[in-house]
Specification:
Number of helices: 3
CATH topology: YaeB-like fold
CATH class: Alpha Beta
Strand content: 25-35%
Distance between the termini: 23 Å
Number of domains: 1
Shape: globular
Structural class: alpha+beta
Helix content: 25-40%
Order of helices and strands: EHHEEEEH
């Protein structure tokens, strides 16, 4: 199965913002693409086809624990993986269901 990986506009905005403090983020996202190609439903299932993936940051020397959290939305019928949001763990502990659904609706995915 070849799933298409599509970043949302919100995801792209966050990448631009994070890139200032984490210049290696583009390199780290290539690792994410490899993970998703192997397993489109990688990470922890949050329900409603949404998954949270822990991703190591090359700029932070704490492994996955202090790295990125990437939230994906998988649409099996269309074989698409939408990258909804990304945040760095030390700066934001979690994301609420309401925030996730707002992103999904804003991007026109439901």
């Amino acid at each position: 199965m070849n799933y298409e990986i599509i970043p949302t506009e919100y995801f792209k905005q966050q990448i631009r913002s994070l890139q200032k403090s984490y210049p290696q983020i583009k390199h780290d996202l290539k690792e994410l693409a490899g993970i998703l190609r192997e397993n489109p439903k990688a990470g922890k299932a949050l329900g409603k086809a949404i998954y949270k993936i822990r991703l190591k940051s090359s700029d932070v020397l704490k492994g996955k624990r202090g790295g990125y959290r990437v939230i994906t939305y998988v649409v099996d019928k269309e074989q698409k993986i939408w990258l909804l949001t990304i945040y760095i763990k030390p700066k934001k502990a979690t994301i609420t269901d309401e925030e996730l659904m707002r992103i999904v609706k804003k991007e026109g995915l439901v």
